[in-house]
Amino acid sequence: MTGDLSGGDLSRLRRLNALAVIGVLRGEPALTLTEVARRTGLSRASTEDVVRELLERGWMIEAEPTAGTVGRPARRYRFHADAGRVLGVDIGGHKILALVADLDGAVTHTGRVAVTPQMGRRQRLAAVDRAVGAVLADAGLEAAEVWASGVATTGLVDATGRVMLSEALPEWTGVNVASHVGRLVSGPVLVENDGKLAALAESWRGVARYAKDVVFLLAGLRTGAGLIIDGKLHRGFGNAAGEIGALPAARWVQALEHLRSWPGDDPPADPDAAVEDLFLAARDGDRKAGLAVRRYVKDLAVGASALVLTLDPELVVIGGGFSRSGDLILEPLRRELDRWCVRTPEIRVSGFGDEGVALGAVRLALDHVDAVLHGPGELVDPKHFLTVERPRTRIEP
Amino acid sequence: MTGDLSGGDLSRLRRLNALAVIGVLRGEPALTLTEVARRTGLSRASTEDVVRELLERGWMIEAEPTAGTVGRPARRYRFHADAGRVLGVDIGGHKILALVADLDGAVTHTGRVAVTPQMGRRQRLAAVDRAVGAVLADAGLEAAEVWASGVATTGLVDATGRVMLSEALPEWTGVNVASHVGRLVSGPVLVENDGKLAALAESWRGVARYAKDVVFLLAGLRTGAGLIIDGKLHRGFGNAAGEIGALPAARWVQALEHLRSWPGDDPPADPDAAVEDLFLAARDGDRKAGLAVRRYVKDLAVGASALVLTLDPELVVIGGGFSRSGDLILEPLRRELDRWCVRTPEIRVSGFGDEGVALGAVRLALDHVDAVLHGPGELVDPKHFLTVERPRTRIEP
């Protein structure tokens, strides 16, 4: 048994060292060679070697010298987050939200187009085109410069990016979201359910970032859920995890009825605005509005308890549109969970408002970039992402 | 960047190579040096080196030469599964089952003592002493020769091996099972909930061994559940995962009432035998018994659907005492899941009868052995396990 390493071993080691350096630089402002060496545990010589390679390839750049330093300051390096751009799109019932972000996930540009739940497939897809077109133009990006795109949609999504089932939006079942968005940008298009992506966003950089097991509740005009298990998004064998709302005993369908029946018997013209009014009235002490919110939370808590009793998570996050009224939901939800659960987890309200889903879509796109970067074979160059072949998906007529 | 390895690296590599050889030998009848080298990818020289060390330490032994081979046969080696013994105990409402197994998990001896759900703490613990005493005597084992013990109990268990809450057995909440069993055997005593351990057994060597995500239903005079997520037992943040039965909307409490009300209004003297009679009568075409089973499954399926909708598992396993009547449960359960679930997973009946929980307890003990073997530091010798300090637990008066 010897310490000999083959050429293959050395090339693997070199690549692992490069990824280790990228790893310590990401999310840091800028580090000196000495700091990089200390944090990676690599020798000075190996660190210099790796840094030279990463600078050449364009994964790192030299940072501006810090002002006010006496004498010649040590050179500092940072991850080149501007080397590429990803797109995140949330296709919702009430809005299309498109975000452009750099490789650190910092959102640089935002495009938003209002839609209604009643819109058909054609109108909604046209709104997607407008939102994506606007954010790319705003960012000064060609379609070919997008490395990868993440797209969130309501409903169940299959592995090709097609909506298998959507009960919330008309004519939405069967839409191939991946191939539609794939006409607007180059690079792979990853499509996932909105509740799952909002959970991913919380786990990535939201209130759930320090928790391993999380139940995320997408509380809005549609109720959904996403699960983080052992720090990772749990998709399920058929990508249908978190669909507790399908069980009548979970009472999520009834939950929304309490909000919809306010203020009168006629369905309001804009249900979103009506619910916002309801929460405002409840906050102002309106008895009837307060009762409607309590009844909503009581029913929401049955399905939420089923999720909590199943997983026993560290944390429950309230997200989605209603999270802006989280102060009205949090305490009554805690009381109801106390009633049903063996152990009530900590409950927190999302800080992302209605942008959590789109942020999760950005993360989905970045996950793809990371998977390629950490995948088998040689370390890739940034330009590799501009030449990636689109995964083959059926193009719709 | 060079291929130099420090002394620490070399010692780590030597240990990893030894564990790799143990890994390929486990679960195999016997392998030649050439076969070991091929399966581990180690050089011939490294393999000889590792095999010599493992033989010296007692982790491997030379296998008997195969009869009928012409000429001098190549030496064959196997993992020394007899180097140690572990204990698995199931403390149930109706029986105490104690198993002794070798390091491959092969059960060599079994001890069984009948108990009743009505028994108090003192009587049940005395029965545990008898079952463990009997199986150790039968196996010819001293208490000090047990490397590790796994114990299954109904109820919620805390990290010290104490029952936090048990509604099924009288005087059982608060019992420190770890410290009680720790008086009978040396080595660490790991305690876990019965549904979780039965799930672990299915994942280890039962019908769920090829599935990553599994919902296990412990269907018996008490209904429980255990979850396997990404191939591992999911315990939950407070060790309370799978407790969906606590939610009235899941209908598991009502489910059992349908079986208990048979054949008449008086509670039967032996509920276990009465339910067995009920299943027999249902199989014989008794209309009333058939109706009771269908109602039981209908209610069982509500909680089961909540688990399935939450996780979207690959597989549902029906285990526990009623799994012997799995043929009567499987089809109606599938129909009910079809009714409520977005995607009905495959459903299989456990092949372990009422021994699955105790087998899971064996696996829990072996997990401890593996954790020490694969833990940090030098490769340990088998004799290390005879000198392990007991984890400190509160000794009960």
Main sheet properties of chain A: 5 strands, mixed
**Strand percentage of chain A, roughly?**
15-25%
CATH homologous superfamily assignment of the largest domain in chain A: ATPase, nucleotide binding domain
- Tell me the total number of β-strands of chain A: 15
Description:
- The structure is a homodimer of 397-residue chains.
- Chain A is α/β, with parallel strands linked by helices and 397 residues long.
- Chain A folds into three domains: 7-79, Orthogonal Bundle (Arc Repressor Mutant, subunit A), CATH 1.10.10; 83-197 and 356-386, Nucleotidyltransferase, domain 5, CATH 3.30.420; 208-351, ATPase, nucleotide binding domain (Nucleotidyltransferase, domain 5, 2-Layer Sandwich).
- Chain A has helices at residues 7-25, 33-40, 44-57, 121-139, 177-182, 194-205, 252-260, 271-283, 287-311, 326-340, 356-373, and strands at residues 31-32, 60-62, 76-79, 85-91, 95-101, 107-114, 146-153, 156-157, 163-165, 189-193, 214-219, 223-229, 232-233, 315-319, 346-349.
- In chain A, the strands form four sheets. The first copy, chain A, has a five-stranded mixed beta sheet.
- In chain A, β8 and β9 form a beta hairpin.
- In chain A, α7 packs antiparallel against α9.
- Chain A is globular, with a radius of gyration of 24 Å.
- Mean pLDDT of chain A is 90; it is low at 391-397.
- At the A-B interface, α1, α3 and α9 of A face α1, α3 and α9 of B.
